[in-house]
């Protein structure tokens, strides 16, 4: 019996008790799905629910009496071994071994689809993450968003959402001008401007621009007048830098569906259209020669200048136009992942959302991530050999590999600052969380290979009642949790829940492996005990693989 089947049985018992008049409850008050959770203490049963506490008052009775009636009805359901009422009205449910063990076969048969749900079905989500300025390689903070953002996209898709991964390409504004002037200075053998960019990558790009111009038979861009030279280095330099960024992300296992250019908002008239829309709604006004958005009406701490007194668009103008563009492209929810230095951005953007008539924190969500610190040999790692000032995505991958980097960045809540120990992440030990989980998968694969050599085949038999050992009940309970974990990770935008779940599952599997044999010992005959345990082994293998796939991490079969 799967958790969903048990939840359906609970709901059916509620409906029947309402229909026969036992519960004086409005049928509409019966929940569409009864919530189940794993008891904290294993001896309390396989599943627990507080549905009696939720509904008893509406039914005009006390929760314990409500729970006792529900327990009496549920005890007759095939596969339910016992139902106990605890405390003020909690129901603790224990399944018989056969009912619990059926999950192993169900998981294997569902394959890669196990753990998926439809909680976000029909929702079109635009997920914007990383969006690093094309003025240098992606630094460690952006790498965290690459791992977390891509994992969140996978979790949302596994929950039925139509997700578009989007990268906002900031190719407009002062930082691009500083980048271009830095390239030109380096190409001319001069020091970078005081407000410019350093690092070996600036020299590399400058040299590439000169080489490409020479190969194409074009004039040396250094010889142009300053304005034309800066423009030449800007156009080519931004393209080259962004090509590098995309290549690094691709190597990191992150592919974007849309690369949106900020320049397009200004060139297409999108900014003017967004301002006109807000003006028509009565939210714009003129003061001190500038055009302002009255964001204080929607909870912001001050109104915002959208068009400056010289007629130039303020930075927020692009943000306003970009949000409207996403909504006009049909996205129900626009989720933007930002660094820890963007806290002040939240209030103004939620005000923009409301000014367009949308619902803040629903149509627009802003997720703020905290810093990442790297440690090696007990000391902080602060600088990149190539970037000069920050640690980059390529530095991290070179140090620990893609799997360890993605897993370690995804396994903690993004609103927590984290320290990554590079020595730990390259260690083949149980202290290394990604190794611990991947090794569990490799072990399941090894067990399956050994079983095949010993003539143990799943298709020759399955008897769920044989999975009656305590370690099997615990392992099955962990396997049953994946759909709930995925749904919760999607709802809370917290893919780290998948990683932490996998570590618990791996622990349960390792304990089971130590206590139960899949292959016959010595001259023993192959029996349904071995075959049924192989089903459980392979179900675990499938669940670990599914969970790792949600994090964009490989599931090796040998380690």
Describe the structure.
With 559 residues, the protein is of the alpha/beta class. 49% of the residues lie in helices and 12% in strands. The chain has 20 helices and 14 strands. It has helices at 3-19, 51-55, 63-74, 97-110, 140-158, 174-187, 200-215, 226-251, 262-267, 270-280, 315-328, 343-355, 393-400, 402-410, 422-425, 433-453, 470-480, 482-492, 496-515, 528-550, and strands at 47-49, 80-86, 90-95, 124-128, 162-169, 258-261, 284-287, 290-293, 304-307, 333-338, 364-368, 372-376, 379-381, 418-421. The strands form four sheets. A five-stranded parallel β-sheet has the order 6-5-4-10-11, with helices on both faces. A hairpin with a 2-residue loop joins β12 (372-376) and β13. α4 (97-110) packs across α17 (470-480), α6 crosses α8 and α16 (433-453) runs antiparallel to α20. The longest helix has 26 residues, at 226-251. The two termini are 34 Å apart. The mean pLDDT is 93.
How would you classify the quaternary structure? single chain
Strand content: 5-15%
Strand order of the largest sheet: 6-5-4-10-11
Whole-Å distance between the termini? 34 Å
Report the helical percentage.
Answer: 40-55%
The largest sheet, given as strand count, sense and whether it forms a barrel, is: 5 strands, parallel
Q: How would the global form be characterised?
A: flat
Low-confidence stretches: none
Radius of gyration: 29 Å
Number of helices: 20
Total beta strand runs? 14
Mean pLDDT reading: 93
Query: Structural class of the helix and strand makeup?
Result: alpha/beta
